[in-house]
Amino acid sequence: MKASSFFTWFRFNKTLQVGLWSVWLYGFLLISLSFYATQRLPSLKDHLKHPKLDASTPASPNITIFSVPSAFAGPIGARQLLALRSWLALSPYVTVVLFGRDPSLPSVAGSLGSRVFVEPDIDFTFLGTPFFHSIVARSQVSTSEISVLINPETVLLPDFISILNFVHKLDHDWLLVAASPNVSHFSFHLDEAGQHWLREDGKQIKVVKLQEFLDQKQRLSHCYGRMFMAWNTGELPLHSGVLPPFLYGKGLHNEWIINEALSSDLRFVFDASEVISSFYLVDPDHWPGKLFRGSSVVDTEERSWEYIGNTLLGTLYGSLYFRGDIFFKKLVKLIKCDEDYLFIDIEENITYPSGDQGSLSFLNERILQSRREKKHMKCLKVSNSLYRNMDCSFKDLFKLPIPLFLPFSLESLLSVTADKDKTIVLTIAGNSYRDMLMSWVCRLRQLLVTNFVVCALDEEIYQFSVLQGLPVFKDPLAPGNISFNNCHFGTECFQRVTKVKSRLVLQILKLGYNVLLSDVDIYWFQNPLPFVRLFGPAVLVAQSDEYNETGPINNPRRLNSGFYFANSDGATIAAMEKVVEHASTSGLSEQPSFYDVLCGEGGSNRISDDKCLEPESNVTVHFLDRNLFPNGAYQGLWEKEDVKAECTKKGCIILHNNWISGRMKKLERQVLSGLWEYDSSTRMCLQRWHRTKSPNSL
């Protein structure tokens, strides 16, 4: 090879190498820049956890405050009224919804103006304790931009509105939680117009001075104060999954929902206790116990099963039992540092300025130069010292005895639930009919019928009923081994179970109570008690099971023992004793015993087409008009296109879902007909606000 050719080749090769190196370096630079840019972009998780402000959001959102007050009477009523007026004074954009059925609520709401409403349609226990999951569900139906759920005695000062206006601008759905401290003395009140706070001498006091006074007097407790929460009406739920049927004010439900909201990672969840001025008044001689927040020791001892029920639910559902109080340490805190609002993460020792205060600043990883950053660091250190040493453990709650039972004998349960005429509605159910039981109960609640009791045939339905707030008792003589799917009419299981009913009715009659026995597969269009009471003593009123549309309705063995009314009188008790004795030796269900004893075998005691007369006790049996009390085979009502409309047109008082074989077929027929009042997925009664959501709903 010539030298000139060699140098030409060498120069070409050198140029090629330089070109390749340039391409490689250029590519490396691009990759590095891309990686750097990617690292600088906030992750989705960071965005959810630390959203920024949206300047386009209106500054004055509509706010609905939800609360569950007691009766407005005595010192409690005065404290509730002070709190309620403080809410209305916050902003003209605040409306208040009071949950409850106490007779004092409408008058109190009316006296406070057009921004206060009463909502009676949530789920309560038979003793009047509201269900937390029903309260939250109703609150979430609200179309207000912000919903607040708060204790009825918690007073709020104006900085609460400032905080809501601030967080309303966040560009992601959020959940705010805060704990209100307690004070033993508060000598200030609002003027009549509800605009200014006044001293005892009537002179006005500035809100700043009021806050300073509270700072000196309050017993601060971020862990054990009365917690309240607020959230925006966004697209995301508060948490994943279903909220269990916790009883409101009976422990754990606030901790549970906060823990699940954090675990779900759907909303930005933060604690604003430090920047919201709120408090509640307490009697200094009766400080709330640490174990059960916001409840007195006496209440805890007398109603312990309610707390045990919440503990059991907290153990069975969600992750609170396993995570304990860890969620409190993971809560981002909202604090105010000079004029800036900061979100701080105590666990990671990080502060996140908001709005136009700059980008996220990792204060523990770089030297702070600016004066603002140094102030932020100082605020972070102060908050660290406050929160890091705080013990918010509630593990003692999970040490409660788990066996769940109502501390009522049958006699005491009857005395609590009976109406003024000493009348009881009795039903009996096993676990296989739990959903039908609840639909029956929900319908009675809609009709404002509260004087009912439930006999549980097995332990499963007993535990379920206690958690659902039902007045339930166990029958110690109930048959065992009750089939789940094969206990319908005609089966041996059915024969054994029905004999429990007449025996219990007799027992309750002897205790001095009138009894309306109703199976759970009977839909009540109206309350039948006013009608059946008209027949007076020594008359047993029963549904006819006759399906022929013409002819007598008291034909042999056409007395339906699934719906009848018996007065507590000597003659009726004597007649029922004969029925129970006859059924105890029969190989059939109790239903033939009713007819054969009271109407005579073959109908020998019939005195008309709808009556019988039992000669020894002189008790008359009256068979009810089937147009008002139709059975499941009468006029094919269950086959009508619109069963509810057809029965309403006829004036039905009840409709029996019998004359159909099999539990599942019975359930399917009733659900598809629209005569169903219970949502088993949420364990809630269906309310009117479940079915329709008005654009103007609060």
UniProtKB/TrEMBL annotation:
Membrane-traversing stretches: 20-38
Keyword Flavoprotein: no
Residues in Nucleotide-diphospho-sugar transferase domain copies: 448-669
Key words, A-Z: Membrane, Transmembrane, Transmembrane helix
Annotated Pfam families: Nucleotid_trans
GO molecular function, a single term: glycosyltransferase activity
Designated name of the protein: Nucleotide-diphospho-sugar transferase domain-containing protein
